[in-house]
Amino acid sequence: MAYDVVLFHGVGHPLSLQSRPLPQPGEGEVLVRVLASGICDTDARFVRLGIPWMREPLVLGHQIAGMVEKVGSGVTSLKKGDHVIIHFVIGCGRCLFCQRGEENLCPEWKGVGAHVDGGFAQYVLVPEKNAIPISDTLSPEEASLIPCGLGTPYRALVQAGVRAGEVVLIQRAWVWGLAAVSLCHLMGARAVVLDDDAERLRYAREHKAEAALDPRSEDVREALAPWAPFGADVLLDFTGDPEWIARGLTWLRRGGRAVIVGRAGCAGELKLDIPTLMFTEASIRGAWLTRQAEVRQLAAWVEEGRLTLSPLLGHRIRLEEINEGIALLDHPDTLGVVIVP
Ligand SMILES: [Zn+2]
Ligand SMILES: [Zn+2]
Fold first, then answer.
1. Which ligand is nearest to the CA of 93?
2. Distance from the alpha carbon of residue 25 to the mean position of ligand 2, in angstroms
3. Residue 283: is its pLDDT beyond 90?
4. Residue 227 Cα to ligand 1 middle (Å)
5. Which domains does the chain have, with CATH numbers?
6. Distance, CA 100 to ligand 1 centroid (Å)?
7. Is the pLDDT score of 52 beyond 80?
8. Which tens digits make up the pLDDT trace of 212-265?
């Protein structure tokens, strides 16, 4: 039996649709029929910029919801027909980090759709532990947003240690930033969004951010004053831009925490004034990908109706329209683009 995949052949080349023989799940693996596969900002950046570790050809796509088609020997937790989402970080399972549930820090981690074939295909093969069961009442399109669309910002909120009542400054209101607003509400925190795109600021207001500001023309300190007269408790940066990060840090209160979220292809250096850092006791952390336990927690919240994902969906496309789908992400106000069969 053959199935369709979309292959990445290197930077500057369009992705190409091909047919190839369906793989069989090996020991401890499951073959999943893809029911929805989101295109992430990361995928668009992989295609535009490339990533040193990527082999070619490769099937991209790491936001996957599907149904188990076949299980390999030794698989006990899943059976054919189960609905699943794919946790896209595959840890080695043996190292210090994997043993502690920190597989995103595993030195040998492999990303579904980054190192091994991902979800821009009709089927995907993953280790049993990476297929997380979800209710079949959830729409696959919405469920596909859980692993990265929610998982990446949730990791950042966990890294920041956000508590109820705190004011969280969120830089860039794309899917991650908007999901961060919803997660702040769930945690009882107040979200203030900064962006330089009017349409994305409108999305932030629709997501009921306390305020949505363009930092080039509006006074952020003044806007924060009613709830955070000393500055924001937390800064979450989704831009990866050194200028945005440095400016964002100036709006943090003493003892505040900043989290810089990993975004594919980001580079540059951050210049820090050592006395300022000392006297303010600010902390700056990174956030990288997401963890299995976090994806399971998010799936439970979505199933309980505590998080709504439909406002994050922008476009539905078919697998053969993948290049057009990636081009949609060139528009600053495009929300989630999902491939459906
Ligand atoms: Zn992603
Ligand atoms: Zn490991």
1. 2
2. 22
3. yes
4. 32
5. 2-145+309-339 (3.90.180.10), 152-287 (3.40.50.720)
6. 23
7. no
8. 999 999 999 999 999 999 999 999 999 999 999 999 999 999 999 999 998 887
Ligand 1 centroid – CA 195 distance (Å): 20
Q: Which two tokens stand for residue 315?
A: 């476009």
Helices (H), the chain: 41-49, 96-99, 140-143, 151-160, 175-187, 198-206, 220-224, 242-249, 274-280, 292-303, 322-328
> 49 CA distance to ligand 2 centroid (A)?
27
112 CA → ligand 2 middle, Å: 15
User: What are the CB-based long-range contacts (under 8 Å, 24+) for 96-105?
Assistant: 101/291, 101/292, 101/293, 102/291, 103/291, 103/292, 104/155, 104/288, 104/289, 104/290, 104/291, 105/288
CA dist 276 → 66, 82, 229, 273, 281 (Å): 49, 53, 19, 5, 8
Ligand nearest to the CA of 62: 1
- Ligand 2 mean position, distance from CA 292 (Å): 13
Ligand 1 midpoint to CA 112 (Å):
10
Rounded Cα–Cα distance for residues 106 and 304 (Å)? 31
- Strand 211-213 relative to strand 232-237, pairing: unpaired
Predicted local distance difference test score (pLDDT) of residue 116: 96
Condensed to tens digits (0 to 9), the pLDDT of residues 13-34 reads 999 999 999 999 999 999 999 9
Ion ligand 2: residues, CB within 5 A, are 91-92, 95, 98, 106
Q: What is the pLDDT of residue 263?
A: 84
Q: What pLDDT is stored for residue 143 in this prediction?
A: 98
CA 101 / ligand 2 centre spacing (Å) = 9
Confidence (pLDDT) at 265: 78
